[in-house]
Structures are given as structure tokens and as C-alpha cells.
Design a protein that fits this description.
Length: 300
């Protein structure tokens, strides 16, 4: 994501980065130096490496975070605000959080920033995974006031192919969790159906082609077929090397369940799906979420 930002940012802008993983920052620096060697006459690709998130925030009018859990998101924003008021800049700060977290945690970070009057907080989770991040083809869904729509879009489109405003702050993470809740259920259903069909002796490739043009059509059949050999490009045909891991879909399901509980929404299938993902994660941690199919076979 950071390298695509630097490639597409205006020449006059400087990108300031920080990551707790120093090797990731070193890798970024090497990539930028290679870009400079190639076309420095046209673009100097200005950047700095900061020691912490507070340093980034002090110097940035737009700050983008992408973090693995609600607690870490809150810790990072607390670390930004714990050392007093941020210095005033020519433009009002825009904080864009691309993490997938629950709506309650996202609102808490917004409220924390609102109390300091140091800028606007936008939730902007993404879809597209590691491949999309590297290729610059991520899809963002974000929540912000209407008057910030164009500014947020212009920042996000430096890292992706689309950015859609879903409503006010919080609408981005809610939209992401609603989508991923559907995925978590469809992923299990597709694995169950193909495992059942295999035991019936059906041709799984022929069945998958049928489903793609029938009412059972879904992403786990269209793109991420869980049965090895049906789609040569799918993780299942490559040892279930991830795409999106079973760990991540379990985490997103838990976030959706937490958000549903907070709002009083009923999710009758969630508990059983969570039970399945707990068992699959224990057996196949780090594998693609479609490995549910292999887990089912081993239950017989």
C-alpha cells in the first residue's frame, strides 16, 4: 500500500511512514531507492521514516493507518494523543483508518479524536487482500461526512481502484463486516455442498459450473472454489496457500458478532459458523479460508 501511495502521490508531497516491523520499512526504502534510480529526474519520490505514529501525525495532514485489531488501533491513536495537542498545520488533519474493526471501537476512536479537535476520523476498510494491496487494486468502503467525500476518495484511490462512501463515520466498517459475514457463511455452505456432492459421486467441476449460473452462485464457488482441482487458480488447488486465511475470516466473524450484539441484531447462524472456524483454525491455522472443505472431509 505504501509503495503505491508514493508512486501516485504528487511529486511535491512527502510520504512519512512508520511500522513496528522495521524490515517492512527497510523494504519500502529499498523499493523507493530503486524507483529513484530509474526515474529520479522526473520524480524524487520524497519520503521519511518516523520513529513512531506520533511523529507521523505531527507532520501529516492526511494520516492513514492499517492495523490488525481493535485494541491495536486504539493503542496507536492513544499514542498519538498521549503527548499533548498536535501542532497546528496549514490544513485540517484527516485520519483514515483502513483497519477492519468493530463499529463500537471505531466510534470510540472517532470520539477520542473529536474531543481534541485535531482533525476528522474516517473508517475505510478495504477488500482485495495482499494481492490487491501490492497491485494497487484494492476496493475501499468508507464512512465520513458528505463534505469530506472527495478528499477521502482522492487519498484512497492512490492505493486502490475504487472507493465508495457508505454513509457517515462507522458505515465503512459496518459495510465490511456485513459483507464478510455473508462470506463466512457462504464459505462453509460451499464447502459443505461440494463435500456432499463428492460423496454422491458428482463431477465437482460440472456442478460448480452449474452453480455459477444458478441461484446458489457465490464468491466461494465463482472465485475461491474449495475443492482441489476444480479451479487451478484457486488456493485449494495450490495446497490451500492463502488468499484470505481462516484466521482472518474467523476474526471478522467475531467482529460482526460483537457489532450485532451491541446493536441487538440477530445472527442465528453465527455461533455454529464460529464453532466451525474455531475447529478449522486449530487444525489449519494460516491456510486459506476454503480449507473448511478439507476439514469436513477429515470429520467423516
Amino acid at each position: 500500500m505504501a509503495i503505491n501511495l508514493r508512486k501516485k502521490m504528487p511529486k511535491s508531497y512527502k510520504l512519512i511512514i512508520h511500522d513496528v516491523n522495521s524490515s517492512a520499512m527497510n523494504r519500502f526504502a529499498e523499493q523507493v531507492h530503486a524507483m529513484r534510480d530509474r526515474d529520479a529526474a522526473d520524480n524524487p519520490y520524497r519520503f521519511d521514516i518516523a520513529d513512531n505514529a506520533r511523529q507521523v501525525a505531527e507532520k501529516s495532514t492526511v494520516l492513514i493507518t492499517c492495523l490488525p485489531s481493535p485494541r491495536i488501533v486504539q493503542d496507536v491513536y492513544n499514542s498519538i494523543l498521549d503527548h499533548g495537542t498536535l501542532p497546528q498545520l496549514a490544513d485540517e488533519r484527516l485520519f483514515i483508518d483502513c483497519s477492519t474493526i468493530d463499529p463500537v471501537s471505531s466510534r470510540e476512536v472517532r470520539d477520542m479524536l473529536d474531543k481534541t479537535n485535531c482533525g476528522h476520523f474516517v473508517d475505510a476498510p478495504m477488500s482485495g487482500g495482499v494481492v490487491g494491496a501490492c497491485a494497487g487494486t484494492l476496493s475501499f468502503m468508507f464512512g465520513s461526512p458528505e463534505n469530506l467525500k472527495e478528499q477521502v476518495e482522492s487519498a484512497l484511490l492512490l492505493m486502490g481502484k475504487s472507493a465508495r462512501r457508505m454513509g457517515d463515520q462507522g458505515a465503512g466498517v459496518c459495510s465490511k463486516l456485513a459483507n464478510n459475514y455473508i462470506l463466512s457463511i457462504n464459505n462453509i455452505a460451499a464447502a459443505e455442498a461440494l463435500n456432499m456432492a463428492r460423496q454422491w459421486g458428482l463431477d465437482l467441476r460440472a456442478l460448480s459450473d452449474l452453480i455459477k449460473s444458478s441461484t446458489g452462485r457465490c464468491w466461494p464457488i465463482d472465485v475461491n472454489n474449495p475443492a482441489p482441482g476444480v479451479d487451478e487458480c484457486a488456493p485449494a488447488s495450490n495446497g490451500y496457500a492463502p488468499g484470505g486465511t481462516v484466521n482472518i475470516i474467523k476474526k471478522d466473524l467475531e467482529l460482526a458478532m460483537a457489532g450485532a450484539k451491541a446493536s441487538g441484531a440477530l445472527l442465528p447462524l453465527a455461533e455454529k459458523a464460529h464453532e466451525v472456524y474455531r475447529a478449522v483454525e486449530e487444525a489449519y491455522s494460516g491456510k486459506d479460508l476454503s480449507v473448511v472443505y478439507q476439514w469436513l472431509q477429515n470429520q467423516a
